[in-house]
Fold:
Amino acid sequence: MSVSSLFLIACSGYKAENGRGPVWEIARTRAEWNSFSLFDDSRIKLIDFLIDLSNDRPRDKNSILRTCPTMAAIERYRGKVYEMAGDSISKNIDSSSINSVLIVSSLFGILHPNDMIPDYELMMKDKSPSGNRMHEWWREEFKRYHIVEMVGALYPGLKNIYCFMSMFTGYVDAVEDLGDRYDMFVVHVQNGNMYHSPGTWGKTLKSCLEVGASNPEAVARIIRPFGCELQNL
Structure:
């Protein structure tokens, strides 16, 4: 695919409930609903881990991960990034292919916005099946899957990766090895905080998508009026 830049956003703790799609075990068999099926072994391991953890918490949504209906990730995640940029993301993706906006997920690793997923509770700072943090676990899993080579095969013209997410929540750490091959940047919100920054990332991503910005100079120029700057990893 001819894509020179990828825009990465984090999954959201705030999610829409229920869904109208089939359970994930069925949805994952459809290529158009599961763009990164190579991660499924890791995902199944995590789902089993979360279900076991929820045995003593019957109201925990993770207890019904196997039976929860699915919906597209772009609809499931309801945080500020998605509230501000969701329409622009939807307009800039093609349901039949992997495109330039991808989601870094604590449960699914990497998602296309149209991938079908259940509701769940898990963040990158949470405990993993190995006892370390989820971002550390995924970083090791991504190494095992040779994520740098995988991304290179999917995007042969890729040059830049922009992370519209925090350096302190683990999501950037999980995919940081991509910086070994590509110019990788974090959109830093000056004077930002956990409440203000997600909305700003959504607004800046929306602006980048609407004007088709891809090179660092163009992205930096667009995000500057929002009080943001590019930081090179």
Summary: Strands lie at 5-10, 21-23, 69-72, 101-105, 109-111, 116-117, 160-164, 183-189, 228-232. The radius of gyration is 17 Å.
